[in-house]
Amino acid sequence: MIDGEIGGPLPRVLGHEIAGHVAGIGNVLVYPCWSDGTCGYCRRGLEQLCPAAAEPGWAVDGGFAGQVLVPHPRFLLPLEGLDPVRAAPLADAGVTPYRAVRRALPWLTAGATALVVGAGGLGQFAIQYLRLLSAATVVAVDPSELKRRRALSLGAHDVAAPGDGLPAAAVVFDLVGSDATLRQAVECVLPAGMVMVVGEAGGRVPFGFGLVPYEVHLTSSVWGSPQDLRAVVGMAQRGDLSWDVEPMPLARANEALSRLRNGEAAGRIVLIP
C-alpha cells in the first residue's frame, strides 16, 4: 500500500485494524468494511462484499491517528473487558482466517488434512480456528523456523518448510497468495478438495482440465462479516485465542513499517497514539 500497488490513491492515512474508546459506549473494535447497509450483499449479511464499501486505511483514511471518524455506530463492536490494544488485530488478522475456516468446514471432517501456508499473523489464527472448529489434522508451512515453532505451540499437528515434502490435503489455506504458494497448493490438494486463497501477493495459477486435480474448488475468502467478527471477539473474550501484540508509539510508525517490510515482526505491531 505504501508503494501504491494496492489500496486507494495516495496520500492515505493507513491503519485498518482499529480499536479505541468512544464516549458513552466504551472500548470498541471497529468493523473495517464501511458498507452502505442497503445493497443485496448487506441485506444477506455479507457486508464485506458491498460494492460501495469504504475500507479505512485502504479507500479512506484509517487508524494511524489520534482520532478516527467512524461513519455509523453499527461499525462499532463493544469489547466488554478486552483491552483495545490487544483487540485491534482481531479486526482483520483475527476475522479473515475465521471466515475462511468456517466456509471450509464441510471439507474438514475427521481424517482430513488441512495445510496452512504462511504461519504469520493470519496463519496463526487459522491454526487455532482449525483446532477449535474441526477434527482435521493441521500442518503449517512457513520458511521461518520461529514461525514454525509458534505454529506448533498454537496447536498445529506438524510443520514444514516450503521445500519439504508436503502431505495431500483436503483443504489448502494459502495465506500468502504468490505464484509459488498457489502452485504448491494445487500440487497438494486432493481431488474434490479446496484451495482457499486469502493472501494478497497477487499470484496466479493455471486452471483447466489436467491443470488442477478433478473437481477441486478454487476460491478466495475476503475479510469477514460483522457476524464473523462478533464470533471472533466472543472467542477472544472466552480466552480461546492466543496472539502476539507489540505496542509502539504512533510517532514510531515508520520504524514499525520498516520492521514489517523486513519481516522482523513476530505478530502484530499496534500503534498507540
Structure in words:
With 273 residues, this protein is an alpha/beta fold. The chain folds into two domains: 19-92 and 224-272, Medium-chain alcohol dehydrogenases, catalytic domain (Quinone Oxidoreductase, Chain A, domain 1, Alpha-Beta Complex); 96-220, 3-Layer(aba) Sandwich (Rossmann fold), CATH 3.40.50. 26% of the residues lie in helices and 20% in strands. It is built from eight helices and eleven strands. The strands form three sheets. Strands 6-5-4-7-8-9 form a six-stranded parallel beta sheet, sandwiched between helices. A three-stranded antiparallel beta sheet has the order 1-2-3. The longest helix has 13 residues, at 121-133. It is globular, with a radius of gyration of 18 Å. The protein starts with 18 loop residues before the first strand and ends with a strand. The mean pLDDT is 94.
